[in-house]
């Protein structure tokens, strides 16, 4: 006897297209990854969407992959400048700590990608918008801290663990220099102040 399948996927729910209030829910260093443009240190930034929820009341969550650097032309740098509402000084760029954005509020412009899935197009400043805190667990992971025994890979979802495990840092290949420094810091909510 065979089995049948339908067109419905499980209980996965996409965020709707448009502008959404959000809070940064995590930063995960996935190490040096190889792609069509060579080896690059990468990270994933997560946001809780504070106006759309799962059936059990949790905020929907979106993520975006970034090359982990603050070069002025990088997508990460452009999103950060838009998010904070002002450019970085040279010193801020050189000493940026990605974990500082965890908990920070923003507005996300969500669009459909070429696979007809929702994705983060722009991260916008929300200093004048009231956005509630998220009560969901935050993701915070640094490969450096993992190798020093400070983080556990088991706390990450399996799909993220797979990226980390194939990174140059864990497979023994050398990583490029000049990557963003990722150290844990504490974010205290200040409604009128972007923490980065």
Description:
It contains five helices and six strands; from the N terminus they run βββααβββααα. It has one domain. The protein is 16% helix and 31% strand. The N terminus is likely disordered. β2 and β3 form a beta hairpin. With 196 residues, the chain is α+β, with helices and mostly antiparallel strands. The longest helix is centred in the middle third of the chain and has 10 residues.
Provide the structure class. Answer: alpha+beta
User: Quick one: how many beta strands?
Assistant: 6
Instruction: Return the average pLDDT rounded to an integer.
Output: 85
Percent range of helical residues: 10-25%
Q: What overall geometry do the principal axes of the alpha carbons give?
A: globular
| Proportion of beta-strand residues | 25-35%
Number of helices: 5
Our count of domains comes out at: 1
Write the layout of secondary structure elements.
Layout: E1 18-35, E2 38-53, E3 59-67, H1 75-84, H2 90-94, E4 105-112, E5 118-124, E6 139-141, H3 143-147, H4 158-165, H5 168-171
Parallel strand pairs: 1-6
Antiparallel strand pairs: 1-2, 1-4, 2-3, 4-5
Brief summary:
16% of the residues lie in helices and 31% in strands.
